[in-house]
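Quick one, T. Sequence first:
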Amino acid sequence: MSKPDFNSMAKSELRAYVIAHPDDKTAFSVFVDRFTADASPETFDVPQSKSGIEKIDNLIQQKVQQIK
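Structure tokens:
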């Protein structure tokens, strides 16, 4: 049996394949490479105060509500 062409798969197809074939290291590597390439390069400092932590928590909650 030949392996599928992971580079031609849609993200959702590749994700489903990786979930269905957890031991396929090649597929997992392609999956990580593709999703890492699409990730934002933006980084954030770790909050150093309680108010900073609360601000981050509020931003996360807002994003979760936007997704729903």
